[in-house]
Amino acid sequence: MGITRHRCDKCDANAFANDTPLPEGWVHHRSTRNGAQLTVCQSCDEADSTNRSDEDASASDDRLRLFIERIERIEEEIKGANDDRRDVYAELKSHGYDPKIVKMIVKDRSMSPHDRKERDAILETYRCALGEA
Known about the structure:
alpha+beta; 3 helices; 2 domains
């Protein structure tokens, strides 16, 4: 039975173990720089785990912040578009056009021909049922 000396590649701590691959609590990690295998003591491994979770949380926080900022920019663009639309309706009203009718035309034009025909058929059916045809 031989005794093996292990050295932590991060803090140079030493540990001795009897014919075991690693002392208890020690682990092997792959280096993120060059892929080399590192032997790390329990203290360094726990510190790395804390740092990794902090980095993950930080990256997650940054990602969330970016999503929120994108949504805020889109909200501003929508507000600007709605202001522009309101100005156009005010302008067409000042020229004597009826905004309600124009809104109906815009809505009709956004519908597919099939949907428009279906809506008109149902509307006609309801008017006939009410005796307004």
